[in-house]
Amino acid sequence: MEFPWWDKKSVSLFDQILFLPPVMEGALPLAFEQELFVEFCSGNGLWIVQKALENPQNLWIAVEKKLERAKKIWNRAKRLGANNLLVVCGSAENLVTAILPGPIVKEVFINFPDPWPKARHAKHRLIQETFVTELQKKMLPGGKITFVTDHAPYLEQGLTVFEKTMKPLLPEPFYGKDPENYGCSFFEEMWRKKNKTIHYTVYANH
Known about the structure:
Number of helices: 6
Distance between the termini: 43 Å
Largest sheet: 9 strands, mixed
Radius of gyration: 16 Å
Number of strands: 9
Helix content: 25-40%
CATH architecture: 3-Layer(aba) Sandwich
Shape: globular
CATH superfamily: Vaccinia Virus protein VP39
CATH topology: Rossmann fold
CATH class: Alpha Beta
Structural class: alpha/beta
């Protein structure tokens, strides 16, 4: 099937893929009939498509800003029959602030987001206090956020942001390694081959 044309000026929903323009003026929240499981920074979709296939009773949302990656997720989901997965091509911030109703999100997974490794670029990282505060408004009480990274400075920033308003579900230092049955992503496979340490943090919404 040909991928749909998109003018990048309006919200567009087509066959399990939702396009979000950079500017979201006048956008209205979508209606969902069940609680949501959301992965931000989904890359090529290896992790979330497998989760959707393993948990067909749940509705999963893959969020990827880059169009080519969103295409890969959509194609993988269609090829494997993951009919309970919605692909969002657009920014995580726009999805959270303008599209998601609340509270409806059961679990959030942030797997290997761009670390923006230079200190002067840290302001561009997804996990910021303003973003997490908005995200919490869309989460159910007790809903969980799992953050996975190989980048130590980003790990520290994440711990600082989450501890302000959320409850850690791992003992100090509030991160662990190799959770059972978590699943694997493209970036995890790549970093493990390079012997990098992967850190997992889990927080609960109050």
